[in-house]
């Protein structure tokens, strides 16, 4: 680590602490040449996840888009923002832990529906109606019947 004061590349770590809920490590260092202290932050380097859309175009995974879709499905429902964030965290963790660096929007949608089904069934049906592009009332009823059958 290069000293910001004298550019010497030798320093020692005085103190290390976790920062940002364990996402970073904050290190207090002391330059071995000039003796001045400075702080560095270590961040885990992640490989971006690429989302393959229905039209075969690709874009980087955006947590905010997933959050927006789930928020819309849960609008005016008794689902707290903490529950929504937990769902998004769970989905993102499952995507990150996958060995694949590409994921389809349909896979993300299925993960979201799994989370919603166990949290709030009305939100699940709302999300499914948009995600699965229900064309008529019969398709909608089929999904409701599946949900009722699973419940029994």
Task: State the gist of this model.
This protein has helices spanning 63-73, 81-97, 105-119, 121-131, 137-151, and strands at residues 11-19, 24-31, 37-43, 50-52, 58-60, 102-104. It is α+β, with helices and mostly antiparallel strands and 152 residues long.
User: Which runs of at least 5 residues are low in confidence (pLDDT < 50)?
Assistant: none
Order of helices and strands: EEEEEHHEHHH
Question: If helices are DSSP runs of H or I spanning 4 or more residues, what is the number of helices?
Answer: 5
Arithmetic mean of pLDDT: 90
Care to describe what's here?
The chain is of the alpha+beta class and 152 residues long. The protein is built from five helices and six strands, in the order βββββααβααα. It has a three-stranded antiparallel β-sheet, with no helix packed on it. A three-stranded mixed β-sheet has the order 5-4-6. Helix 4 packs antiparallel against helix 5 (137-151). It is elongated and about 75 Å long. The model has no long low-confidence stretch (mean pLDDT 90).
